[in-house]
Structure formats: C-alpha cells, structure tokens
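Encode chain A's predicted structure.
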Amino acid sequence: MAARYGIGGTLAGNVLIVDDDVGNLDVLRAFLDADYTVHEAQNGADALALMASVRFDVIVADQRMPGMSGIDLLATVHERAPDIAGILLTAFTDTPLLVDAINRARVFRHMHKPWEPEDLLGAVAQASAMVHHRRLNTALLDELTTRSDALRVALDKVEATQQQMLHLERLGTLGRLTAGITHDLRNTLGGLTMLEGMFEAQQVPPRVLSSLRVGVAATKNLLTTLSTIHQFSAGGLTLTRERVDVGALLRDAVLLAGLEMEQRSARCVTDLGAGVDAVYGDRARLLQVLVNLLRNAMQSMEGGQTIRVEARADAGGAVVVAVQDEGPGVSPEIASRMFDPFASTKGAQGLGMGLYMCRLIMEQHGGLIRSVAPVPAGRGARFEVVVPGGES
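Encoded structure for chain A:
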C-alpha cells in the first residue's frame, strides 16, 4: 500500500548517541557506524539542539549525565518528536527508575551495563523497524484522510450537480406550465381590461371601480411573475431599464397587496427616507419583488400585526428598501438556503420559487436581496432589497 501511494523514506538512517563519557561514545560509534549514520552529544542540551537540524530515528542515551538525565532527555524527545525511539543505558536496576523510563520517557528498550554488542545492535535494529512502521502508519493515515476529504468534496460536487440538474428539470417543467397559464391569463386580463373601460364609461361607484383596478393590476403582476419564471427556464431574464420613482413604487406594491392585507387584518406602514427619489431598472420586476416580500410578510403574521416598509439611500448611492414583519422570523433550518430554488419558507404550502425569483431579479439589476436582523432587534423577519444608483 505504501508503494501504491508513493510513500517512502520513513527512515533517515540517523542514530544519536548521548553520553558524557567520550570513551563510551567511541565504543558505541564503533559498533553502530557500519549500519547507521551516527551523531554524538555529551549532554542533553546538545542532543536537543541537534534535533533541530537532523532527523533521527533512534536515540541511545546514558542515564547518569550531568544537568539532564537520560530519562529527562528521552521524555523531552518524546514530547517534541514522539516518532523517535529511545534506548536507555544504565547500570542501575531499581524499579522506580524502570517505571519512570516506561511511563514518562516511553523508552523503547532499557539496557543494563555492561551490554553485549549483539544486544545493542539488535535493539537499535528493532527500534528502527518500529519507527519505520510507526511513521509508515502515520503517513498512510494522513494519505487516507486526505483522500477521504477529497472523496467527500467530490461526492458533494456530484450531489450539487445532481441537485442542479433536478432544479433545471423542475424549472423546465415550470416553464412549460407557465407558458400555457400565461396564455389563458392574458385572455382573462383582456376581458378585465375591457370591463374596466366599460365601468369607467358608465361611471360606476368609485369603490367598485377601484377594486376592479386593483384586480387588473394584480393580474398584470401575476403575469410578470409567470413571465419571469418562463424566461429564466428558457435561459435568462430580460430587463427594461427606466427611471422608477421609489415612492410610487412603494405605493403600488402596497396597493397590489391591499386586498390580502384587508382579508388578514394586517396593517402596513411606509417610510420614504430623505433623499430617496428614483432608481433605474425594470419597474414591473421591481414591483414583483416588493409584492412578493409583502405577501410573505402577511402570510407569516397573525391578524392585526404590522408590516413596515422603509426606503433609504446608503452611502454608496444605492437605494435600500426594507420589508419587516412581526411574525416568528426565519427558522435556522431554512436561513442558509432561503434564496435557493424550491427552498420554501412556508414548508409544504410553498413552491419555493418566490425568494429565488426575487434574488434573480435583483442580481440582474446588479443589486441584491438579503435577510437581516429586525430593527429594532426582536421578533420578526426583515428583508432588504438593494438597488444600485445610476442609469447603468
């Protein structure tokens, strides 16, 4: 498996011998020189300094040294580089020393003086083999972790692609359905428009005429919504850019949502900030966005509650229109994907296209739509629509 994943070079071939007696160092070197690259240190501090520049496999240390004992040295080595194997040489056999060597220094082998050359060579060879397997296992685990992460990313991409294909298929189906509905609705709108003209000519009571006009405007807004879905399913949206009076836009949006507000006993308060005049964009599409937000707000509230619509100019010259309700707010489960297609804030009762279409319309305008904390903080949901300033 190591060869398959290109893992090699686990052993550096370097052995460090540490003893304050130069004679002992010469003896150790004489036995180890043939098979390993041997480095020497006469105390623990020098040994630790060597570790900064040399990668060691095995450290052979004498227990009795001035300043830092062999156990203290190997304990520090284990903290800094736990993959290095330590061999402790000592003339003492007391149990506390052995326990300390095992528990604190985690020595690989404890050897008594005088030691036999064959035993020392065997111990170093076994320690090197253990280091090889330890490093190999660590490298393989790292490689498998990396590959597992890469596989997870790839699977996420596949799932995202599948979801995108599903969305496109569903949008295509919606596009075909809206084409037929739009045709029939245009015929209905033609009849309503003709009836509106007849009512105006016959001077019917203003209350009746006003209701009919609201119905005609609502039907036109519905046609715009269906047209938006159909255009997007066919490959994109087209916008008509014109100067749009923001105050009139807010009034028309509230008027279109007025009948439903009356039915739900909801109230709407508008606030047109100082310096807010006009924006440039597709009036029908912008109206569609605001009406959608107003209806979402109404459907989230109980009777008698208030919707606040505010418009202000930001420091960059854009116009920010906010719609805030007094409902329960946006649930954490839907917050991160509420502007995605088919992600409904109304559960099974919604199609999940309203906020998505709002997002598309605002992106086509070079602006954005976002969910922000209510002002002042508290219960409810607040959505802001940002329309860039200027004619471009």
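Residues 164 and 242 are 33 Å apart (CA to CA).
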